[in-house]
Structure formats: C-alpha cells, structure tokens
Amino acid sequence: MNRLHRAGQVWSPVITPFGPDLEPDSDRFAKHCRWLLGNDVGLAIFGTNSEATSLSVSEKRGLLDSLVAAGIPAARMMPGTGHCAIGDSVELTRSAVEHGCAGVLMLPAFYYKGVSDEGLFRYFSEVIERVGSAALRVYLYHIPPVSQVPLSLALVERLLKAYPDTIAGIKDSSGDWSNTQALIEAFGEEIDIYAGSEHFLLQNLRAGGAGCISATANVNPGPIAALARDWQGADAEQQQQALSALRGVFEQFPMIPALKSATALYGGDDAWHRLRPPLVELDAEQRKALASALDMAGFDMPGRRA
Amino acid sequence: MNRLHRAGQVWSPVITPFGPDLEPDSDRFAKHCRWLLGNDVGLAIFGTNSEATSLSVSEKRGLLDSLVAAGIPAARMMPGTGHCAIGDSVELTRSAVEHGCAGVLMLPAFYYKGVSDEGLFRYFSEVIERVGSAALRVYLYHIPPVSQVPLSLALVERLLKAYPDTIAGIKDSSGDWSNTQALIEAFGEEIDIYAGSEHFLLQNLRAGGAGCISATANVNPGPIAALARDWQGADAEQQQQALSALRGVFEQFPMIPALKSATALYGGDDAWHRLRPPLVELDAEQRKALASALDMAGFDMPGRRA
C-alpha cells in the first residue's frame, strides 16, 4: 500500500515563470507555489504545463533547490522527472528524493515511437534501480496526446509487481475516461489513479480514484480543491459543472499560454506572459478574447494580487 | 552559398556502442567511426540511429571530445545537437563549433506537438543567436515519423532568409519523395538537401540534392558511397537497386537493433548488441533471421574484423 494521498487530492502542474532572457524566475515561481498551497493544491512542478521539457536538468534542479530554500515544503511536491535519457531522469529523481518530495511524476522516454512494453519496462526499471532509494515513490505519466508513448495496463501491472513499494500511482492524461476507469478497476486499491483534468474529478473520486492533476489548477485551485474535499456532498454535481464550464473557457485557447495570460492579468504581472520556444504567448487579440471570456464567466484568482 | 558538401555526400548517423552498464563506449565508437571514414562516409554522430536522445548532454560531449582526442577529424563530423530544452541544444552545438565540426544536424524541440512555425522559428533562432558563431552551420532535421514535429517549407524559407550564412541544409527523413523534391526545387541551389535513406539517393542526386544521411550507411557504407560518387555512371540504376535491396533486408527488422546486430555479427563483437531503453536488442530468433537474410543477400562488412 503506497497510497500517500488517498481520495481527494488535487495537484497543479505548476506553470514556470521566465525572466526577460527566458531564464527561470525562482522568486515568481515560489510565490505562485505558495498561492497554490494556500488553496490546498499540491505542487506537481515540472509537468507538461510547466514547460518542463524546455528546461535543462540543471535549471530544474536549481528551481527545486530554490523552492526548498524558500521554505516551500518538499512533502507537497511531486516533480516531473522523466526524460529521454535515463541519466537525466536519474539525476532529477535523485534530487527530488534527497529533498524529501512526496513522489515524482515520470514520463517515459518519448522520442522513439512504437516502442515495446519491454523497452518501457526497462526504462522505468533502470531509473528506479539506479536511484535505488526506499523513499522513492513513482507516479507514472500516461499522456499519449503529447508524448505519443502510451503506458499500457500490462506495463503498469508488470511495474507494480516488480516494484510494489515504489510505484505509487499514475496520472491518466489520455482524456479517455474508459482508460481511467480501467486503471481504477485494475489498480485503484493499490495505487493512486489521478485524472489529468478536473473534467473527470467527480467521476474519478466516485469510481475510487485519488483526484486530479490538472493544468487549470494553476488558475482555479480553490474551487477544484473544494470539490475534491466535498465530493460526497449534495452540491457536488453543481460544483463539477462549474469547474468544467471554466475549464471549457481555457480550452478555447492554447492551454499553457492561456494559463500564463490569466495569471499575468489577474495577478497584475505581465512577466507571466513569457513562454519558452517552441511555445508562443497569446497574441493581443487572443488575450482580449480570453480576458473577456473569463470576465463573463465570473472568474477570479482571489488573493493573487496581494 | 553555404554548401560545404555539394552533390555526392553520404553521412552515417553513427550507432553508439554501450558497455555492460550501458555507459557509452568511446573506444568502440572511435573504431566504428574510423571504419566509416575509411569507406568515404561522414560522421553524423548523435542522430536518431545513434540513440542520441537516450544520451545526456554530458555523455555526448564526452563522446565528441573522445573522438577528437582519438584523432578523428571534426571536419568530417555533423553531430546531432537538437534537444527539447534550448540550453541543452546550445551547449552541445557550441561544443561542436568549438571542435570545428562541419556542421550540426538539429532536431526541433520535440515534446510538444502541433506547435506553430512561429514557435519553431523562435526555437532555432534562439539556439543560433545564443551560440553566436560565424562558424556555425545548421542542417535542419525533418523526421516527422519519429519527432512528430514536421518542419514546413515556409519555416525553412524563413530561417534561410533570417540566417543565410548559418542554415546550410536539411535532412528529409519524411520518407516522402515529393517533400524532398519540393525542398530541392525551392532551396536546392542555396543549401544541401539530404535524403534520409539511400532508397532515394540516385533520385536525390539527379534532382540536385546533396546525397543522403542514412541509417544503413553504418553497415553498408562502401557501396552507398560508391553510388554517391558514380551516380552519373552507366550502372547507377543497378547500384541503386542493389542498395535498396539490402536496405529492404534491414527494414524487415527494428532498424537500430538490426544495425547493431549486424555490426556485432560481422565484426565478431557481441558488445554491439546492447541498446539503451526504451529500445531493445533483437531476440535470438530475430538475430538468426537477420543473419540468414544478410547471408542470402551476400552482405559483408569488409575490413570490419581487422
């Protein structure tokens, strides 16, 4: 039983702020993390929405060190540590374990496509064996729309059998509820099954999942965490509808630039607009459309300007 | 005019040997590179077939340093230096320039899919600007079947206009001859257009392309280089047919493991069988089938055991 975070957990793949020369901005990063924690949302730093693959390993280690130095509790962090090169995955995973992070969210090597389960098993196995720590907790990251490297149920089962004390969960960002359901049915008693979006939060919790790790938890953390706490309450359906409606607004735009634009706008801090290539910020027209749609939806980021 | 290698060039994406703990094996690497050079094939180290994305930046820098230290001429090298993180691409590209490499073959950032030409332009632009060297020659790497991030003709045009002294060519591994043809028609007078396989070598040279950068140049370098030299000769079609037939044998197997198996077998050196996860070596049955098919095809790697 590795479940550290039984039902009702929300994590945010924390967006990463950049300075004028596109260097990571550790102060703004810590401030955003504090605000998320204050809204009862955990820190899945270095996720897809964090532009993690656009950061070098040393940049990520520097950001992690800076968060810990700023007093952000590592026990509330689940850094993304999967890279194409095993050595990179080992280096960042080891750093996360040394800092006492709750776990790591691990992408498979994602350059080669159509690789075998045997190859993916060896990838995760090599990283786990090389890190070699009883404190390591690995959350597998299934995100075929982006990585194009799916993690099959057979692979999850094999990893769980080989590393029952290490494999702690999976994030399902397939967007396919039937896959999440199958994961919960197969493994939900043993490990944490997270939905990749709050669209599926209530469904996930009712089915026996652990909660969600969601992009929009960067901007709407309070209400998402509220449903994760109150999912057995009378107004859970209404809360779910409100969450999905707001998520729908963001989904009309490229997600990562839209999260950053909203953060810039509602925090009064233009620096948040910056992204690293190959991603591109929203243009003026898109920003205006997003601001207008968020305003119409009654969106707010309470306490953000403080 | 940036063309360093006018018509008739063959490069090999050099396969990378690993030791028992999957560490890069610089001695076997240098030996293989020498054999390729002796067959008139240039060294596109750190390509897709090199398992380059499975190597950390420091491992690649170490291998490049070791080749130079072993007396392999950098002027015959075209390392792959594109990574998802710009800082990684800059670091390895700078090292290649400092060593005097002929050029670098650059993948776009490949994690995010469906990115815009603007984002890809910024990616290449940031790397070029940050390296900031008049000696830099960039060969763009179009390999949509693997990277899933195609480079459009409009993007190539824009990069060529912005960096006419730096953009030196493109490798087209789309497998789509009509795309290679369009690239040659649009840019073949200005830059080197390489086919990604010797299947298209004669077609490429007749149309005005520069040659090929091909996986199977690792194992069949002599005959491929011979056609690149003799493509205007009377038996060019016959040579092309022989090359394609042998390539077809390798294409019946997973390509990278098959290249390594053939190298192990024909060089009498089992260490070459090793691959890094997520790739997996051929199993016993596949090895037997490959050996038999190569034997039937009259395949050899002359001078390999020497």
From TrEMBL, chains A, B:
Pyruvate binds at I213. It comes from the Bacteria. GO terms for molecular function: 4-hydroxy-tetrahydrodipicolinate synthase activity. Keywords: Lyase. The active site is at Y141 (proton donor/acceptor), K171 (schiff-base intermediate with substrate). Belongs to the DapA family. This is Dihydrodipicolinate synthase family protein. It comes from Halomonas salipaludis.
